[in-house]
Amino acid sequence: MRVLFLCHNHPSLQAGGTEVFARNLFRELRDRHGVEGLFLAAVTSTHREWLPGTMVQSIGEATDELLLWLDHFDRFFLSQPDTYGLASLVPLIEQLAPDIVHVHHTLQLGVETLDLLRRLLPRAQFIFTAHDFFPLCAQEGQLLTTDGRLCTGPSLDGCLRCFPGRPAGDLVMRDLQMRDVLADFARILVPSDFARGRYLAAGWSPDRFSVMPNGVPDLPAAPHRRVADGRRDRFGFFGHINRFKGSLMLLRASRLLTGTGVAHGVALHGGAAYQSEAFMAEFDADLAAAPDASFRGAYAPEDLAGLMEQVDWVVIPSIWWENAPLVVQEAFRHRRPVICSGVGGTAEMVRDGIDGLHAPIKDPAGLAAVMRRAIETPGLWDSLVAGIVPPTTVGAAARDHLMLYQAALAEAAV
């Protein structure tokens, strides 16, 4: 079996959950199951300089992982008009001749790339994993209104409020285009029941949707921190530093805990690339006002176990509907209870009072109260640790994906 993976970036350049899982899955299929193929990641001038003569670039020493340099992407229509860049794909794809094309995102690649591949590979089976809500929501796939409220799903009137300068026809055409480009995909995968529900609520057909959890490497758990008095008061944040992931909520909660005399520590781990000056100024101000919090910067995957060893709890205070953040699985792999906003896919993954705690969304005082409860309730941390179920591994995810690929090919052969 030959498989082409398409992703909107490479984890060596942007270590987001989608990029990390997609590359791990590709390598697992290759190394454990003998699947041949190519991991093709789109990049722009933000990540890599354009090199004359080709839009395809290497990265690292892997010969089956390549970058496709594309610019001029239209984030509203998810459109890639760079026909010169796309043309450079043709000989590469024709030589690979994949049986399966697995698309992990349409960002940077655009719907034109998918149309091109459909024409080049009429016999291949196409799989799409909706790692987020970009096909539904033109507001950066956040299902979050411009004034910061959760959105239950797209509607013409609601979307016009977020895009008052857009004609209604643009919003209608975007929706029709996404439904059309994915209409003949064999499967649409989502990593959570919550995500599936959002797509179905938006009127997408349930027939081709399958819930397929992501997975993390099956590695030893980091030892728990030694505490003489049983006090579990060290909190860790792992993820991109941006407004949507809730780092500001955590800093403000930490400031409130300090103000009430609750001893604790908060460590924020993650990169802050590509953020606006306004957000970073707000982040720096909140960090300066939270003396018991520290910002440790970006980290490599191999550093995660050592960083987890220093914390008792993982906090995910996102202010939007998370789909199925990989950090939950990472926390559970290292047997750390999770404190999360009690909405969306995160709340589905973290069972309140069993393996973690839910906190009110976008509410620093509410988050601080939950963190205080986590510190001061005797036996709570031990009880939650005991309730943690080992997460899906990349190995298990690879086996499930391989079975799905085989089923799609068998159905097409009938």
Topology:
Blueprint: E1 2-7, H1 17-33, E2 36-43, E3 56-58, E4 65-69, H2 83-87, H3 89-96, E5 100-103, H4 110-120, E6 125-129, H5 156-162, H6 168-181, E7 187-190, H7 193-201, E8 209-211, E9 234-238, H8 247-259, E10 265-269, H9 277-288, E11 293-297, H10 304-308, E12 313-316, H11 326-333, E13 338-341, H12 344-349, E14 356-359, H13 364-376, H14 380-387, H15 394-413
Parallel strand pairs: 1-2, 1-5, 2-4, 5-6, 6-7, 7-8, 9-10, 9-12, 10-11, 12-13, 13-14
Antiparallel strand pairs: 3-4
Helix pairs in contact: 1-15, 8-9, 8-13
How would you summarize this macromolecular structure in one to three sentences?
38% of the residues lie in helices and 16% in strands. The protein has 414 residues and is of the alpha/beta class. The chain folds into two domains: 2-215 and 393-413, Glycogen Phosphorylase B (Rossmann fold, 3-Layer(aba) Sandwich), CATH 3.40.50; 234-387, Glycogen Phosphorylase B (Rossmann fold, 3-Layer(aba) Sandwich), CATH 3.40.50.
Model description:
This protein is α/β, with parallel strands linked by helices and 414 residues long. The chain has 2 domains: 235 residues, Rossmann fold (3-Layer(aba) Sandwich); 154 residues, 3-Layer(aba) Sandwich (Rossmann fold). It is built from 15 helices and 14 strands. Strand 1, helix 1 and strand 2 form a beta-alpha-beta unit. The radius of gyration is 22 Å and the shape is globular.
Q: Bin the helical content.
A: 25-40%
CATH-defined superfamily of the largest domain = Glycogen Phosphorylase B
Whole-number mean pLDDT: 95
The number of distinct structural domains comes to 2
Task: State the separation between the terminal residues, measured CA to CA.
Answer: 18 Å
DSSP strand content: 15-25%
List segments where confidence is low: pLDDT < 50 over at least 5 consecutive residues: none
Q: Count of helical segments?
A: 15
